[in-house]
Amino acid sequence: MDLQQAVDQFDKAITHCDNLVAVHRGHGGTNRGRRYLEVSIDRAVIVLAVAAWQAAVQDLTTALLDTARPTGPTPIDIARYDTLTGSARKAITDFATPNAENTRRLMVSAGFDPRPLWTYTIAGGRGRPRTIWTPHMVSVRLNEWLKIRHALAHGHETLPVNQALLAVRNLGVTSDPTLQLKDAEGCIAFLNRLVRLTSTGLASHLGITIVYPRG
Length: 215
Prior knowledge:
The chain is mainly α. It has 8 helices and 2 strands, in the order H-H-H-H-H-E-E-H-H-H. The chain has a two-stranded antiparallel sheet. It starts with a helix and ends in a 9-residue tail after the last helix.
């Protein structure tokens, strides 16, 4: 697998989340009020988005190992590389919980640390200052989404109270937070940004060029 293929596959996977968002927006027309049926769509979006992130981490790490694999000059060089990277390839197969710590551990095992790349700036708007997201902040938010995904996938009656959810972040809800369409969209945007930052940095690390399919 090459790096371009890895990012293209993430784009295809996350497009299904975009499609579900479009279905949510199209169902029910312009009627006001809480849309209880569409909450199931929002739940599905988050579960699929995190699954796409997990697959992306596995694919990016595989692409790293495949791209760095020597082509010679002798078969022993290739065999030695395969032996040295065998544990990393097994870790890719075993990768199951794509939180910040496990993601970093997996990619570091293949010779690349993605965490320093996890930083970006968000414009404040309406007179508010810009927000600089640090690797620590990104790691915390990723783990928050993982906790929400876990609750959704396991059918928990209530969701974790954490800052990834608008009801908690903006309304100060302290128990049984609701899930909104904007939460689903926020999850897609966050994980897309994380894949873009990681894959772009990995391309630079490998000395190659990729075309990231989405903004």
